[in-house]
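Duplicate of earlier report; ABHEA protein input re-posted below.
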Amino acid sequence: MSGYGDSPPAEMVATVQGRVSFLDHVLQALGMWRPVLISPSMSGRFALPFLLAQGERLAGFVPIAPVGTKDYTAEQYQRVQTPTLILYGDRDTSLGHQALQNLQHLPGHQVAMVPGAGHACYLDKPEDFHRALLGFLRQLK
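Output:
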């Protein structure tokens, strides 16, 4: 992600609005209209503000123990109408439970806990993760 890890600092993603614009630009450049946005861990800094600002552009949202969930209020989450699958590993004792506690305010959300998996539940238990993800995707219109 731009501005994170070993990538050079990026002024555009230094603000919440900059991260929303960056993700919007990426989706437009890829020609993606109404995608399902899957957001593990650090990508929450991009995905959550995008969801709150432009959630109607998404067909679905799948947060996987993302960071930044506590930066928003229950009221902000309650305004989102995007179908959401909250995914986390039961061994993710910090971000998984924190994300669930905050994201449970999203209307009509579903929750899938991956047993025996940690923070990167998609790596720890890929079959269980994909089963939950595919089940959610099949429900979308």
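The beta strands are 36-40, 60-64, 85-89, 110-114.

Merging into the original ticket.
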